[in-house]
Amino acid sequence: MMLPVVLAATAISTAALSHLASTDPKRRRVFHLPAPRRRHAGAAWAASLAPGAIVAVVSGAGGLFVWLGAVSIIGWALASARPRRAPRIAGVVENSDPL
After folding, report:
1. pLDDT string in tens for the chain (99-residue length)
2. Boundaries of domain holding 27
3. Distances (CA, A) of 76 to 7, 14, 70, 72, 94
4. Number of domains forming the structure of the chain
5. For 26, 44, 46, 76, which has the most beta carbons within 10 A of its beta carbon?
């Protein structure tokens, strides 16, 4: 019972963390990307941390530590990865003026 709960919680947290990483204003500014339209940082933080409470109740302390480790490693991996060039190229194409 522990493994499916931990995997589902990790997937939910990963999605929320990737949203936070892709809409972070400072990160986007450093990589010369346009500002995000909407951020929803509070909801994303809640979605990334709430599965931990569910894992703690359903799987106990062991599942919680596995989830914490997985989310920490995934979070660092998302933070260290460079953003794709596709949004940057799309921003240049949309903002270019032919005249």
Report:
1. 789 999 999 999 999 988 888 887 777 777 787 877 777 888 888 999 999 999 999 999 999 999 999 999 998 988 888 776 434 443 444 444 444
2. 2-95
3. 18, 11, 10, 6, 31
4. 1
5. 44
